[in-house]
Amino acid sequence: MNITRRTFLKVSGATAAGAVVSSLGFDLSPAEVYAQELRIKGAKETYTICCYCSVGCGIIVHTDSKGKVINAEGDPDHPINEGALCAKGAASYQIAVNENRLKKVRYRAPYSTEWKEVSWDWALEKIAANIKKSRDESFSATNADGKVINRTKGIASVGSAALDNEECWLYQKFLRSLGLVYIEHQARI
Amino acid sequence: MTNHYIDFRNADVILNMGGNVAENHPVSFKWIQAAKDRGATFIHVDPRFTRTSSKADIFVRLRSGTDIAFLGGMIKYILDNNLYDEFYVKNYTNASFIVNPRYNFDDGLFSGYNPTLRAYDPSFWALEKDEKGIPKRDMTLQDPRCVFQILKKHYSRYTLQKVTEITGTPEQDLEKVYKAYASTGTPDRAGTVLYAMGWTQHTVGVQNIRAMSIVQSLLGNMGIAGGGVNALRGESNVQGSTDHGLLFHILPGYLPTPRAQWASLADYNKTTPVSKDPRSVNWWKNRPKYVASFLKSMFGENAKKENDFGYAWLPKLDPDQDASWLNLFDEMYKGTFSGFFAWGMNPACSSAHAGKAREAMTRLDWLVNVNLFDNETGSFWKGPGMDPKKIKTEVFQLPCAAFLEKEGSISNSGRWMQWRYKAANPPGEARPDGEIIYELFKKVRALYQKEGGAFPVPILNLKWDYETNGHFDIHKVAKEINGYFLEDIPEHPVDKKPYKKGTLVPNFVYLLDDGRTSCGNWLYSQSYTEAGNMAARRKKSDPTGLGLYPEWSWCWPLNRRIIYNRASVDLEGNPRDPKRPLLRWDAAAKRWIGDVPDNAVPPMGTEGAYPFIMKPDGVASLFGPGLKDGPLPEHYEPLECPIEKNLMSNQRINPVIKVFEGGPDKFLTCDPRYPFVCTTYRVTEHWQTGVLTRWLPWLIEAEPQLFCEMSVELAKLREIKNGDRVVVSTPRGKVEAVAIVTPRLKPFNIAGQTIHLIGLPWHYGWLHPKGGGESANLLTPTIGDPNTMIPESKAFMANVAKLTKEPPKKGAKS
User: Fold this and answer.
1) Is the ipTM beyond the 0.90 threshold?
2) CB under 8 Å to B281, separation ≥6 — which residues?
3) Chain B contact for A97, CB < 8 A?
4) Which of B558, B679, B689, B794 is placed for a possible disulfide with B346 were both Cys, Cβ 3.0 to 4.6 Å?
């Protein structure tokens, strides 16, 4: 999990130096590198891959001693992006550091005009009961021709290309065990 | 993608058509630039001048929805001027194959059409076989019924003049592109194509890509470094979510979903692709091993040979049932479903004809919405035009972890499976999706254990044991996907070596159809082996010098970085392009050197096999008898189009598309109220419906609101000034936007008629930011490609007018 960040800074510092020297006449790069280091000094580095388009750029996420995300930048060792990121990838740490993230389970009762916060246990149990009710009411063992179909007509699912591979596989396993056939996601649209 | 992102740098000519690579896949442009730095030509063909066009050596415009006409003209140009790769065409494509005499094409229709069913009988297009069942061939390519001659005849109609009339692309622009791209028809030149939703989101989407596949096969550009047909997919793991079967028609690894007419596993296996040709590998012949191993991964010890490995417990589709997206929302609209999961999705903005999708959700009893941020789907009940007090739907909104808050892998368009580590905890009570799925199923199972219910067998028998020390463990799922041996195997049929029960299989070649192996997805087998987690590898060796990086992450299948790579060598196994040696046969050692060969059989000149191992005939299909709308791409107009008559034939629209009629589904073509061609697209600063970008301060500041681009000429016609607020409308809905009047868009001359184009990004929605604008999908129609049912969001008819009324006040219902 460790990369030679110092080596990277040397390289990027050297690259920056060319531009700085030519415009100002003296070399600012050591100061820049120092300033850059202060921001992420002692930070833990974690490898990830960008969540947006399908290019698959490598990102290094920096977290402070309390585990808070403080920075994210292109992984210089990654052969596809070689340290570069687009506007979205460069802003991606704001997904983690964002006041608007959903932090609690929310529930909207039938005909209600508002959300209310509920516990995971309560929500999962109620969803499970809903699944069972919909499934039991709409399950067909056979079709009009008498062929075995073991299918749940009353539930559909869309999602998701935003899940990891392992989650996608697990999700299809879950849905197919319930008897769903209306299983779709982003790839269709 | 057949190839991968870094491989763009190996091309001599790069064609980006049906996409906007600089805008939507920005970092990949690094490799286009690397090719340009080497002297490559970069071509962009698009209805709009975009960031990509600004970097192109050649940019030409075409009217949205006319790509087949454009590419049909290219096929004719290549054939007329003998610019195809003759060796490749004869040996690696079905050009020499003989088509049966019932094949015919007349005035826009192929033979076998049934107008009542609006469907073809594809047996009319079958290839002729000899008494042994091997396809008949004429290696001189002279037989009038051989594919090559049929191709020639079909595309002889796509003259420059005709193509110009349809596309609006001037003849000299067409020739410029054709000449540049056709220059890659020699073995020492490589041409690649990059496409995206600009090709798929049409009622002829699959045939758009088929047309380019024909070009690539004629020019010998498939299976080579710097070549291929490369889909620039829109989402970080849409490749993986497709591979893992989150679609109605496929199980993980592209195994067809069981249907009612295949009552037993034996019936299902009867549909396994067959080839009688000893020179065709026909890799799909191994499908029964993958199905049996998949069923073991689903039901574990409960899947036994005597119960068909639990095959009957999987839900079955009816014989012709299509449960794809547009049908799903049509059924929801009719009230078919009581429950619905919108997991990591925002269909209230992403669905074509989003107004119908929103209305459909009011017919549900319950909805589960899992996301990082609030979105227009979870909060649909308080959206524009909705009265919460009249909406019965119970909604659960579950907060989930973001990509950097959990561990797992994703697969990019180049099929690279890359592992991500957890950097931080999710905020508040948010949890990783995998954990939510895992815990939810346990609750459902507990209910069935306690209360019984409708056919509880698959639920009770499901293998669901992915925990370590009482916590969900993603590595256990990753190993389940890779697969393992279920019994000691003293002498494996593949390599005669012993394998121990419980050890991970080295790769899918070791899977068996007798229940002794388990594997969640054969295509990902080799991704997590006894050697470790292959997706997490970070070794940057590049032995071929072509940028394959075989020890960086892992790619399917078998870590093969370029698919169909044996098409890059001659009959003796020597690279046809010595500058880009992807593979080479070492005759002394009897093995291939370079990329992982597709597959390890000797070269064709010895006792080897054809290179296209996933095709039953082993060769690339110039003539493709497997699609619903014909064996050759033919130009048809979009469902909504600006001209009364298709200039190619009397079939205005694709004759087999399913037209949704009645209720909210309205279409108008050549109607003066909706006179402009409209298209939708994306910008760099946002992503999809904007749920993961509209809430990010930097990105929403950069692109704060919906806009509508239009030409200077159209703006003048409609008395609209740059920055004016306008309303864009179709028979389905309307959105307000800021006008961007720009010379980047130009009117088209279509057979003497001036046709205007407008376009809007689809990243916005009513929820956030306030006043940022609505989803452009309120405008798009419910109509899909007949093969994929991907909606036609890239070409429909709309009106644009200056907004005269004041915009609604904050918080007011519109």
Assistant:
1) yes
2) B599, B601, B609, B610, B613, B618
3) no
4) B689
